[in-house]
Amino acid sequence: MGDPAPNDGEIPPVQADQLPAADAENHAPAIVAQPAMAVQAVSVANYQVPPPEKFSFKPEDWTRWIRRFERFRKATGLDQKNQVNTLVYSMGEEADDIMVSFGLTADDATQYELVKNRFESHFIVKRNIIFERAKFNLRSQQEGESVETFITDLHCLAEHCEFGVLKNELIRDRIVVGLKDKKLSEKLQLDSKLTLEKAVTQARQSETVKKQQDILQGTQPDPPSANVDQISKKRGKGGKWKDQKDKPPKNSKLAGKTPETKCTRCLGTPHSKQECPAKDSKCNKCLKKGHWAKACKSQLKKKVGEVYSCPEVELEREFFLGQLTEVDMVERNSKESWKAEVKLNEHAVKFKVDTGADVTVIPPNIYHSLVPKPSLSKYDKMLMGPCKHKLCCLGNFTAKLCVDDKVITELIYVVKDLERPLLGREAAEKLKLVNRVDTVSSDDYKTKIASKHPQLFTGLGQMRETYTITLKEDAKPFAISVPRKVPLPLYQKTKDELDRMLETGVISPVDQPTDWCAPMVVTPKSNGKVRVCVDLSKLNEFVKRENHPLPAVDTTLGRLAGSTVFTKLDANSGFWQIKLAWGSRPLTTFITPWGRFCFNVLPFGISSGSEKFQKTMNQILLGLEGVECNIDDVLVHGKDQQQHDERLEAVLKRLLEAGVTLNLDKCVFSTKQVKFLGHVISSNGIEVDPDKVKAIADLPPPTNVQEVRMFLGMVNQLSKFSDHLADKTKSIRELLLKGNQWTWGNAQRKAFKQIKVDLARAPVLALYDPNKETKVAADASSYGLGGVVLQLQPDKSWRPISFLSRALTPTESRYAQIEKEALALTWACERSWEYITGKSIYVETDHKPLVPLLSMHSLDQLPPRIQRFRMRLMRFHFKEISHVPGKKMYIADALSRLQPQHADPQPTIADDEMTAHVASVITGLPASDTRLQRIIEAQDEDPVCRQIKTYCSEGWPDKHSVKDAMKPYWSTRGELTVVQNILLKGTRIVIPSSMRLEILDKIHEGHQGIAKCRERAKSSVWWPGLSREIQDLVQQCRTCALHRDNKPEPLIATPLPDRPWQIVATDLFQMKGMDYLIVIDYYSRYVEVAAMTKTTKSSEVIRALKSIFARHGIPEQVRSDNGPQYDSAEFSHFAKQWGFKHVTSSPRFPQSNGEVERGVRTVKNLLQKAEDPAKGLLAYRSTPLACKFSPAQLLMGRKLRNSVPMFHTELNPHWPDLEKLHARESESKLKQQSNFNLRHKATPLTPLEPGTEVHVKDLDRPGVVVKAAETPRSYEVKTPTSTVRRNRVHLAPMPEQRENQPVPAEDKIAAPVQADQHKLKLNSQAAPATPLLANRPKRLLKPSLKVRENLGLI
């Protein structure tokens, strides 16, 4: 910005039209029209005060930013009502989302101090004082850092260290110790009265004096130049030349010239060390890190290395040598290509090719070694070195130079003090050792771009755009609570990767409960690190997607016509450069062994990620000429180099402004040919990508009738797109006729060649349209892969746009068939990524078991190799994965089987990467190497497992062709694989029959329940019927039976009696040291309470009951527990004499007399709270129940007068409607019964038959059931000491005791079969049973398939 003209000593306000475009972004708030609430620069005095730059939303930047805003607020005198809006707007878009999370009321949201404090607490966390002080104590003055910057940074660091009164002293000490000038540091340490102010003053003065001395003496160091034609001769002390004759003359162009300031590490434009693209690079000359070879200072040491630029040699009799060295520089692999072994008169000499040398020169020692030695001639031309430095030439001679079959005659010069022979430019061109290229190479262009825009290629970018994940209305949250296991060898690497993602801000820890939580799976990379994958498939089912339209291909290709120079740009981890909105981050929560985390950025694997990234990139590049953007491909093109460079510069500037960073390694700059949208675009025009039809072009001719059928099947499917295609197959079809001999003659060869040409062009091959429905079909044979990409046309037909084919590698050919099919789909999708990325596509396979594995199963449940393939497919979105019979997949099937000979396929996933992933899964299995080896040997010995392994590698036959022994495996054949010779179902080991009994014992160690044992088995082992066998094992385990708690049985509701006082219940209870008798009516819930003043013997109880019965009458049935008062002869006589039936509840089971138990609790509550117990009972008896009537009304047909005022008419006797009462009570009891059963998960227990051996839990002793008692669910049980009555919940049936006999080694899982049906012959050499096996009950299980085979049962 230019300096404004003075105006009476005052600075005039900056106007919008005075700002150049380059400063627009720095003054945007002052010159861009804003809405009413926008923050504008405010005029104070005669100048404008712009607001601070937008906040970075990094906690460490908050204090500095809010301090700047406070100055702005005070300087502008903002109104109170606008301060909050100004604060939020100045911070940036993300501030609105954060403020919403505060949950402020409308009034609070206008209070500036309150809002500012909320932001303070949000961004500022409790600092680690130890860490802050460590940073302070490690701070030292850096190379090239000024004293002022160093001191300022120390003050900033000390702010968070809480030094208190020692702050100034500690800053002083750090300055003295951390100064780069060690002499000054020692001087300051000798001053015993040194203060902070004094130390700062001396450090500043010392730095200023040194700068002034350098300027006065002319020894200020010059930054290195980027010109590779220059050298630097070392100067002596004081900046003087060691050799005065080497000093440039005063009138030389080199004298007094100050080179342009550049970065000393990459020779680019000036920038900080952190922004330098060479900060992590390794020099090819000195092998040190932090700079590029062209900026390496090691080449300037000791002797002449590179030639300085100097005025062009104008004398006709002068020759210039581009490089003369006395000492070799460090040799690098990149330099070896500039050396060549040349035969000089049949004598081998290793020359260095120097395109800057006009002639070829050799040192004297090589000349003297020549046999015969040629005679030297006097030279009449002068040899000049760098800066016209004369060289001492001893003479020249003519010699023959020979490289391979090229021989030339050249004049050779012998130069004194030359270290190595140099091959001149003319000789190198004649020997075809170098070729002249008129254009700059792509690598050099890339280096130039990286030096000019280092920020574009550094770190992870952050776009200003935020993305909100929108879910469908019927979304059902999915969350897991237990993290998946991480293999021990990958445990620390996984933690390191998560820490890296935390440090870069990709993820954040989650402490609050979330509705969504996905599993995490890790896989090793070939470089030794791990890749963290989050399975978001459940979330993707409910994500609303944006259908962002793309321009038609023909329109895009039309704009590329005439372009000759192209650049292709690739974003660095593109998805991660888009921030997620605060509300969407919990949706991406995933669980790990170290806790839960969520993504702060758009995660890979989200179905809507590609289209969001595409839409954002289109918006960023909107309006730029010569730019085409398709998904994540950005193509910049121009008709010539100048136009291309101008357009590329505009694109890079736009990306830089948007906060995007690029992956330098994947970008291609300034190239003459590029692939885009399935076409090859070059200066020659636009052509169809040969890779699309390579599979057709490479089809080998059929060698038998079967291959002819496959080829014709594919041709017939595509013939509908071409009228004459079927006619051309006549000569080939004749080979299928019976009686014709196989002959592949000229007619067939000609037809075959012409058909391949027709298949590879229109109208058979359609033009790709990104807006049409797309489908990928893939198939795998035993030796090849085939695939085709099709698109739906307006006539509802699917036409191919690309054919794919390749042979299997030797390693891939050993995969199981389902793994080959998964490989085919993965390979086809990755080969077609440019057509399907960001689209919802259809996928077809002829392998039906593969469909649920790729669409329904979670990632961690898949077999190891298929798991790795699924992880590769996570970046694509499948609308539907369907099964199509193989006979209808003509194209993919034919391409997979018709493979060219001598093919050299490249694996889709490198063998070492796949091996590392599989090894990590195998290592994570909970089994030692010895146990795994035992299982492998047992699988190989077991005929069933051996046959299953064969099926996995060669393919499964038809279901009806599978033997009965293998049929239990048929339904899970899609999950069965062989990895490292281990038969697996997913990631679980398939256990052969000979080891199942042993494994069952291991599973049931600790005697856990059925669910826990099943979960334990799910983590590692499997065989058909495992779940059922675990259930039988646990249920029949005697140890488990002794401690098993019976589940509650369904509630039996007591029906409402027909009339009042028909059935009553009685019980005794104690309250405050006094015993009471309670009687409650089952019909009315009316209670009578009598105090037992003397004892609780039967006689006293009978006396109280007689008094109550005398008032209300004698009931038909009296219910009580089994207390001694009621279980006596005296009470039995009383019942018989008064004429009522006495019923007792099951011992130790008070629920069977629940009405009186509830009454006891009610009365106790009344007696505790009421001052007058009598009034408390009156209140209860007169209070309406749930049926709207009080106990007194139901018992006596009238209300009781109490302390609550009421009309006299209400005291008149009146009976309720008994029919409605019974209906209402029945409905209430049914509801109560249903709630009880649901709340307690009530399940009926199995009835016990007489003679059943049981364990009486409350007595902790065995017993035998004698008979069922009269009361429901009660049994009479004979124990070793007596016969007792117990409810079913107190009785645990014991499994039948198993005889202590050896377990058959032939089949340990086969249970005994009834003797009258079959007799099993057991192996006499069986291994002895373990203690657990000896105590196992006999389980009525189905014999194994192997045993049934041996017995002839199948």
Give the termini distance in whole angstroms.
Answer: 96 Å
What Rg do the Cα atoms give? 46 Å
Count of helices?
43
List the quaternary state of the chains: single chain
In order across it, which strands form the biggest sheet? Answer: 6-9-8-4-5-10
Shape: extended
Low-confidence stretches: 1-46, 219-260, 299-318, 323-335, 1299-1342, 1345-1354
Which structural class do the helices and strands define? alpha+beta
For the biggest sheet, the summary is: 6 strands, mixed
Bin the helical content.
25-40%
Number of strands: 43
Range of strand content: 15-25%
Q: What is the mean pLDDT? A: 75
Q: Can you give keywords for this protein?
A:
33% helix; 6-stranded mixed β-sheet; disordered N terminus; 1354 residues; 16% strand; extended; 43 helices; disordered C terminus; 5-stranded mixed β-sheet; alpha+beta
Strand and helix map with partners:
Blueprint: H1 28-31, E1 42-44, E2 47-49, H2 62-76, H3 83-91, H4 94-100, H5 112-123, H6 129-138, H7 147-158, H8 167-178, H9 182-189, H10 196-217, E3 318-320, H11 333-336, E4 339-344, E5 347-353, E6 360-362, H12 364-369, E7 382-384, E8 393-403, E9 406-415, E10 422-423, H13 425-430, H14 442-452, E11 466-467, H15 488-503, E12 507-510, E13 520-524, E14 530-534, H16 537-540, H17 553-560, E15 565-569, E16 579-580, E17 590-592, E18 595-599, H18 609-620, E19 627-630, E20 633-638, H19 641-658, E21 668-671, E22 673-676, E23 679-682, E24 685-688, H20 690-697, H21 705-718, H22 730-733, H23 746-759, E25 774-780, E26 784-792, E27 798-807, H24 817-831, H25 833-836, E28 840-845, H26 850-855, H27 864-873, E29 877-883, H28 890-897, H29 911-923, H30 929-941, H31 943-954, E30 976-979, E31 982-985, E32 988-990, H32 993-1003, H33 1010-1018, E33 1021-1022, H34 1026-1035, H35 1038-1043, E34 1063-1071, E35 1074-1081, E36 1087-1092, H36 1098-1112, E37 1117-1120, H37 1129-1138, E38 1141-1144, H38 1154-1169, H39 1173-1181, H40 1191-1196, H41 1218-1240, E39 1253-1256, ...
Parallel strand pairs: 3-7, 5-10, 6-9, 11-16, 25-28, 28-29, 32-33, 34-37, 37-38
Antiparallel strand pairs: 1-2, 4-5, 4-8, 8-9, 12-18, 13-14, 15-20, 15-21, 17-18, 19-20, 22-23, 23-24, 25-26, 26-27, 30-31, 31-32, 34-35, 35-36, 39-40, 39-43, 40-41, 41-42
